Amino acid sequence: MEWRVIDSVVCPRSNMTFVCVMSSKNLKLIVWTITSLKLKSGDRLVPTRYGYQLNRNPDQLIDVVNATPFRPRLWQILLQNRPGRDLRLSDKDALSL
After folding, report:
1. pTM of the model
2. Rounded to the nearest 5 degrees, what angle is found at the Cα of 31, between the Cα atoms of 25 and 34?
3. N or C of the chain: less Cβ packing under 10 Å?
4. Which of 96, 44, 42, 36 has its CA nearest to residue 69?
5. Of 63, 71, 72, which Cα lies nearest the Cα of 91?
6. Exposure string (b/e) for 58-96, b if CB count within 10 Å is 16 or more?
7. Confidence band for 23, pLDDT divided at 50, 70 and 90
């Protein structure tokens, strides 16, 4: 399932990048990734057996750690707080927001 990047936020404390994506079937998700690549609105994440390729470039792989359904409140918390060591969000926390 290919994802189109809508927005992303990098947390410098945890080195995690949170990415708001939309699937081809209009499913909106928040994807937790580990990458040094900059993700911009309009970028495409394409699944492979080794990770997700950025814009179909095999040299630009991204590890997906977690994915949750998009929740506006959760996205606002991520944008404002940029969780790291001080703020941890579990799957249960993310789904309850």
Report:
1. 0.80
2. 140
3. N
4. 96
5. 71
6. eebebebeebbebeeebbebbeeebbeeeeebeeeebee
7. very high
